[in-house]
Amino acid sequence: MGSLFRSEEMTLCQLFLQSEAAYACVSELGELGLVQFRDLNPDVNAFQRKFVNEVRRCDEMERKLRYLEKEIKKDGIPMLDTGESPEAPQPREMIDLEATFEKLENELREVNQNAEALKRNFLELTELKHILRKTQVFFDEMADSHREEEQVNLLGEEGIRAGGAGAQGQNLKLGFVAGVILRERLPAFERMLWRACRGNVFLRQAMIESPLEDPSNGDKVYKSVFIIFFQGDQLKTRVKKICEGFRATLYPCPEAPTDRREMAMGVMTRIEDLNTVLGQTQDHRHRVLVAAAKNLKNWFVKVRKIKAIYHTLNLFNLDVTQKCLIAECWVPLLDMETIQIALRRGTERSGSSVPPILNRMETFEDPPTYNRTNKFTNAFQALINAYGVASYREMNPAPYTIITFPFLFAVMFGDLGHGAIMALFGLWMVLKEKPLAAKKTDNEIWNIFFGGRYIIFLMGVFSMYTGFVYNDIFSKSLNVFGSSWSINYNTSTVMTNKALQLNPGSNDYSGTPYPIGVDPVWQVSDNKIIFLNAYKMKISIIFGVIHMLFGVFVGLFNHRYFKNKMAIYCEFIPQVIFLVFLFFYMTLLMFIKWTKYSADNENKNLSAGCAPSILITFINMVLFKPPQKGLCNPYMFGGQAGLQKFLVVIALLCVPWMLLAKPLMIMRSRKQAAHQPIAPYSNENGDADGGLNQHNNVQADGTQQAGGAAAGGGGGGHGHENEEMSEIFIHQGIHTIEYVLGSVSHTASYLRLWALSLAHAQLAEVLWNMVLKNGLQQGGWIGGIALWIIFAVWAVLTVGILVLMEGLSAFLHTLRLHWVEFQSKFYAGLGYAFQPFSFEMILESSSNSSED
Q1: What are the start-end ranges of the H helices in 161-256?
Q2: Three-class SS state of 10
Q3: Helix, strand, coil percent values for the chain (each to nearest 5)
Q4: What is the C-alpha to C-alpha distance for residues 53 and 60, in angstroms, rounded to an integer?
Q5: Torsion of CA 403, 408, 414, 416, to 10 degrees
């Protein structure tokens, strides 16, 4: 948990591996996932690296596996996923894997080609069967219309009577072609025939009711049978060209009925034989795919691990002897021993006798930021990293966000009923975590919800707490402990007089407040909004000032860790004074007002009516304006006027303190450094740059960097040794203006806690009064049915608007309060994330990309 508050100490190491052991060692480091390798060949083309051929072989194996996966999914065969991750195979096993994949691919392609050829043959025979059936009807109709010419055969040996202009009563010899065409092309086909042949053809068509399977892609298509009668070879050529243009398939159709019957019988026999062969082919294909499906997931894992290892080995350098690989990597300091053990284990697996060497290196480069997280803290860390990755060894806001984020959300979302719905949804996802995680889906909204399941659960639990404090459950109240107010009027007076009020100074109030939260009597009062507005607005300011002060004090831990004394004296102290003397003093006035003034106080100056306005008091304080004196004392305590003037003057003096102190101190330190004598050259301790190092160790702003092996690269130091003085003055001026104006605007920004809480409560009340209340007012069996329907509408609107939409709104406002108001006080977020070489991360990203 230590690295959750501040990132892990990282060190840059140089790794020497024997060529024979490099593969096994990198494989062990990939399983460990604690090493981030640097590219030592940035200028070398990807195609000129040492292991580019191995990477290509892995790409080819992946292609074959994707082909197998596509065929398996096409047949709907379930793929076995044990959830286990097999170890990366040894290099010599690559040949066996390649041979297995090659054999499977060739066998499957051959089966598919044979099946496609059989299906194409089956399609042709099926279409021919339909042609023989449908055209028989056409010829029968023709025979019926020429019953007096029974001796005339189908081709018109003695002439077929054809109707037409100038040809009536003549016996003409007609030719015909028959075929099959896609149904959607038939109208255009008919128009083209009519126009191209000028109406000298006769087209008959009939639909094939059942769809036919396209052998090339397996799609179901609808087709129609047609027969075209024409006269002469010229029209025959033209008709065939049109058929070819519309991709119609022509089939030979015998002239005589007996020949057609014989052909039909032969076609049916061949179709039955083809069905048998097709079934056997499909069974063989299915057996091949079922056998492949059992191992496909493991094969993918193995190939991707091999590819990742060789891709990582391409980042290494070869020494002059070509027998040793040299790598540079960032590793967490606490895991050095674990990494050494993994390297020794890899060396033993490879059978090498030369142990690997892992040396720490000194560097001034900023190390990556690594915060160890678990499944609970990971979601909160993701919220922080979405704003910016923490600088190296900078204070991490995530552990504080675990509490402050759901709490500030709950202040805006406070409702016992809505919070319970959200908490139950989050709890369900937490309890069903493993089965839900196993059902991998590409639904982005669901993945966001599931990834933030612990955040949702905590937000719901905190909302239940604040809802209990507000005494608000679906816009109604709970009378758990009994109200502290009593009505001393009779029923008729209460029902007829709308102007009655409960006087807290009389016997209407027992004097003992409600044990926890808001008294339920406020739910039925007309001035409920006025009371809750004042209450929620004040607690919003209180929470905001405390939250900002906490952020400033977290910055103190950064200054102390990086030994930045100048930042403590020139930034932290004036910032705290400015915030405490103005805004924290305002929150103290709120507590004084709550405790000192009451309705039953006998002293008139301390009665509720004489309580001064906090806002007016604060404005008069800043403007040095004396309050208007009336019947009541405008001051809450003695000496308040002098104290307020003192606080404002000191707070205003903090502005030039923040603006000028740091640049002036930097100027003085630079002048002192310029007059220091140059240290003599010394090489006694192996320091060839003694004087230079002595100068560099004292930074221009008086700070010293710390942090593991990166002795000068800490992200929290913010040194200015290379900046011009004009830039430093400008930077400090911007920083000062941002803090002073931000203190005012950020304090006002926390009023969103009050505004959204008020809006949420009012929306819930409107939904109750306008929807559910109408269903409760009706009686009888009609009222029961109406209540059932109205409750369903109310429940849908409650979940859709008040839980989802209002919850999302409150979530975004809470995120803004943390990113801007809280983190701006101490968080730079200028680092870059630690991205170790990890098989787990590589496989997870690969599976996500393949699903997309």
Answers
A1: 186-196, 233-245
A2: strand
A3: 60, 10, 30
A4: 11
A5: -10
What lies within 8 Å, CB to CB, of 606 at 6+ separation is 596, 597, 598
β-strands 171-172, 202-207 pairing:
unpaired
Q: Whose CA is closest to 381, among 358, 355, 356, 402?
A: 402
Quick one: fold of 130-272?
Alpha-Beta Plaits (3.30.70)
* 65-67-72-74 Cα dihedral, nearest 10 degrees: 160
The answer to whether 203 and 226 are in contact (CB under 8 A) is yes
Alpha carbon distance 286, 107 (integer Å):
12
Does residue 3 surpass a pLDDT of 90?
A: no
Strands 249-251 and 212-213: unpaired
Q: What is the DSSP string of 692-750?
A: HHHHHHS-TTS----STTBTT--TT----TTS-HHHHHHHHHHHHHHHHHHHHHHHHHT
Chain position carrying tokens 């109240």: 477
| Number of DSSP helices (H) and strands (E) in the chain, helices first | 28, 13
Q: How confident is the model at residue 172 (pLDDT cuts 50, 70, 90)?
A: low
Rounded to whole angstroms, the Cα distance separating 660 from 43 reads: 46
**C-beta of residue 713 within 8 angstroms of C-beta of residue 705:** yes
What is residue 665's three-state secondary structure?
Answer: helix
Q: How far apart are CA 572 and CA 346, in angstroms?
A: 50
CB of 361 within 8 A of CB of 328?
Answer: yes
Paired with 229 in beta bridges are 176, 202
* Cβ 13 vs Cβ 328: under 8 Å: yes
CA atoms of 806 and 410, how far apart (whole Å): 12
Residue 629 sits at the vertex; the CA angle it makes with 626 and 633, to the nearest 5 degrees, is: 100
Q: How distant, in Å, are the alpha carbons of 140, 548, 737, 820 from that of 749?
A: 89, 11, 17, 10
Q: What digits encode the pLDDT tens for the residues 175-223?
A: 888 999 999 999 999 999 988 888 888 888 888 888 888 887 778 889 9
Residue 80, amino acid: L
Collapsing DSSP to helix, strand or coil, 478 comes out as coil
On average, the pLDDT of the chain sits at 85
Burial class (CB in 10 A: 0-12, 13-18, 19+), 337: exposed
Which residues pair with residue 172 across a beta bridge? 160
Name residue 797's amino acid. Answer: L
Mean pLDDT confidence for 74-99: 86
Burial track 428-466 (b if 16+ CB lie within 10 A, e otherwise): ebeeeeeebeeeeeeeeeeeeebebbbbbbbbbbbbbbb
pLDDT grade, residue 701 (50/70/90)?
very low
Give yes or no for a contact between 682 and 692, defined as CB atoms under 8 angstroms apart.
Answer: no
Q: What are the E-state strand segments in 345-447?
A: 357-361
Helix (H, G, I), strand (E, B) or coil at 99: helix
Residues 355-411: pLDDT tens digits? 899 999 998 899 999 999 999 999 999 999 999 999 999 999 999 999 999 999 999
